[in-house]
Amino acid sequence: MDRASLHPARSRWIELWNGKQALGWDHHGTPVFKFRWAPGGLATRRQLRAMRMCPGGQEPYALLVWRNGKRWAWLYRLDLAKPSRTASPAQLNALDKAMAARRTCGRCHQEQTYCIPTSDGRCIDCMDAASYPTAA
Ligand SMILES: [Zn+2]
Fold it and tell me: Domain of life of the organism in this record (predicted)?
């Protein structure tokens, strides 16, 4: 019996994705999959990001290799992945609000297409209006 077949990682992934064939295991016992051969339920960091997810602190679960091992990427478990901190809908919404606040004039309360200088807080129209004597 070879070393890999004794490793706990083997039974671990067989349990989850029974039947799928790994290429082998690296020296840490991490299952290594060929491109397109990785079981469902695993994704690379790039794939996670495309889904607006991040690994969420989990250790890489398996290794994906392609181009005869010249390229490789860690695979993470989707069930442990978390919504990305930088792109969750709630935070995008909050970011939008923050940007809208930065574009809103403190005097006329119009939202402008540009960011209002924080030192002044007024839109350019208001600054212009204030720098000329009013007709009335
Ligand atoms: Zn204004």
Answer: Bacteria
